Amino acid sequence: MTAVLFLTALLASQDEPLSGPLPGSTPEFSKTVYAAVDALNAGRFDEAAALANKLPHKAPVIKVDTTSLSESEKVTYAEAVDGAIKGWETAVQGLKFKADGKPDILITFKKSLPPDPETKYPKGLVLFTSDEPGEPRIEAVIATTRLNPPVSVEAGHIRSEVMYAIGQWIGLADQPKAGSVMYRVDTLAQLPPAVDTLSRRIAPDNFVLGDRLRQAAAAKQKVELARPEIWIEEKRLDVGRISQGDQPITQFTVVNRSQATLQYSVRPDCGCFALQYNPIVGPGQSTVVTVGMDSTLFPGKQRKKLVVYSNDPERATTEIEFLADVTPAYEVWSEDGTAGYPLYMDQNGGKTTLYFTFDPDSPFTIQDAKISGAQGSVEWQAWEGKLPDARVDSDPKKGYKIDLSFLPVQVPGRTMVTLTLVTDRKAFETVHLNVFIQNGIAVQPASLYWGQIEQKPNRAFVILSRPGKEFTVKSVTTSHKSFTAKTETMPSGDIKLIVEFNGDFPIGQIAQTVTVETDDPEYPKLTIPITGVVR
Amino acid sequence: MKFVLWLFALSITVAAAMSRPEDAWTVVIGGQTDGYLAPCGCVKPMSGGIKRKACAVHGLRKSTDKLLVLDNGGFSKGQGRQDEMKAEAMAEALKSLGVDAINLTSRERALGLGMLASLHRLSGEKFVASGSQPDGLPVPRWLDKGPFLVGGIDPASDPGWATAVRELVQEAKDASLAPIVMTTDGIEGARALAKAHPDLRLVVYAERSNPPVQALREGDCLLVTSGEKGKALVSVRWNGTRFEGYTVSDLGPQVGEDDEVSAIYRRYLDRVAQEKLLDMVPRTNDDAFVGSEACASCHTQEYEVWKTTGHAHAYDTLEEVHHHVDPDCVSCHVVGLQSTKGFKSRELTPLFANVGCESCHGPGRDHASSPAEHPYHKAGEDSCLSCHDPENSPTFDFPTYWDKIEH
Asked: Given an 8 Å threshold on Cβ–Cβ distance, is B394 in contact with A271?
């Protein structure tokens, strides 16, 4: 009964048309598949069988030559190789490696390998592929040291390299992004221990192809497997100048120049793309890939990439460049070009004006505005003209003039205030802008951070400022004798508070303060943290 | 067959050795990190971060001592307190990985003299400003290292930049050095610079995108950019007469994290916690929330589904990596951070920790108190996109993600 079922399944599988290698297979795998098919269809069944036998099967023999290793390396690396084998056996149902017999995969080790001509790094792995029946299909020579001067590898590196070598034997192509077992580097990198999703998808298909071709050769049967040929004319998509928030749509055409079914997929390098396409193109057909890009988060000149993977054995990947010049949807200007610098307040509060400008062809309507972080009010009105200070920008503009008024603020120093605008633009329903207000004396930066310093003299300073109202420092004291402080008045009227460290401080965290007494009755005392680490 | 391949490999080695002059240098290019200190996002693997960059640069340093590390500035995105702390952490990290020159741009100047002095000190005094000097803080005009003279300009804000480049090129010529310029301009500006000064050998420009697959060349000058947010390590090689060997390596999780810079990053997070920056996040609305447990009484099945999803543990995942103190991260991992009545801390508002029902469906107090009078709306793809944006969730596609939380 079992034999009947098996025969039925075999005959049924042989009736199904044979699909070509999936995108993501190596060119060598694809070429071997097509060579076997050619041989079958030409009636050269012995040749076809020999070719099919080079394709992966689920009972491979893997041998590890440890003669060049030390005793401790033998133990460590044996575990790593076992880990790699188990990783693949878990990923592919029915795959079971053996240790006895003529090896399909041979793993050997060398202390170091010649450098890669491109990167100049010593190689971490060299793969040899053999067509000779008496030799392993793949020999992976793994370097036990990397870099220059040499650094010994760890078990994880060995495991990564063996997993990659097995993947190559299965016929999986290199992947350009980390996260795949088929991504490798010649440095001290360790890849994830599990086989990634894409490799898990392609690998079983490659085993099936190998089995089908071996069966066909044994049964002396012809098979149908035409070669897809992909053609993409557009290698660059340039949507030109667009406004931020625009979602341009462009297209490119994928043409199947063959009599086989073309399969392809498109992977962008940015999550800002939305793609629509039919991944299957019939013989002689063409299809359009629609590419939408959301520019909301991407002002400025953009250069991105779309990679087309296909089952064309000659053109497995095609890169398409995507360009856009995204002009900002809006810009915010202060009257004197000092947006971001604090607005100084006094006992009457403070006022400032901002200009919110946009491209007249893509206007905004401000529906509401409010401030948070301080008490105050905001008024806005449509505006057109030139900015008050031509040094900032002298081109005529259109947008809104926003007047901000702040009540006297209780918190001394510098405060960040958020201006929230509600607009009618879907991509920019709310726009948050930061404005800084200063009440009294501000310390910039707010703490004196040393970072990591040594037990030797060092020097740093912060700036005390109160624009428009000078003040005098009466005294400066520090909380620890290792720090001394003094002040210098700058030409602008700001005061430089200089803190000297004499190096005599225990190793560990610094959590000290410097206290400044001033002649300003509203702000008679400032306490400034001194932080860092002494090593 | 094997012997042929070995012979081939050997010949490549010999050829490489013969073509590699004694004064070959590697130049690493960085910049425009915009405060991106570490990969953030709910997708693995993410790229970039100062810890990985330092690990990669130290790795390069093990293979050569002829290494020049440049940074084109642009540490911070804004001027708030957190931006300042990020900039200080970045400066420390650059010093730790051995940066040689940092372009002093208008973004650093906008932080003010006190902060600029702090950054200059923390970086090991590595800023260069070839055009106008910052008031009150003299920095070198350029760096002289190995066969190079390196300057930095910011054409958008410094009218003296053109003269500075002329002087740099002349100085380099007089000293038989190869001139390099870092500029905040884009590719057109870089190309114009290279055309105007054919003696330039490398121009590092700024671009808001990934670094290109191939470097551009204008005559004998190579034009390169690190791209934005430091997600890749970009390097070029100097062969004695010109730059070549442009390499872009993704700083993915395979790179590893440098211990010293990891400590710097941890100190940054500790400072953020110490200064309680999360408490200072502006609360821009008064939306009223109730927490997901309040929804459970009527929407039991949906609540049970939610409990099994990653959303129900989103704040926990932040706590595991000490990012629960970071305002940049917390807003997408809790309910109502922008509201005066939303999340404040796990202790004060435990019901609002994690991504709850109201994170997507909106404030639910009115609906919970009177469902018939205040019907609740279904959430659609738009409600996902505010957090699953291309930056933090680059592989997001609604059907796949919805499958995991469908209710």
From this structure: yes
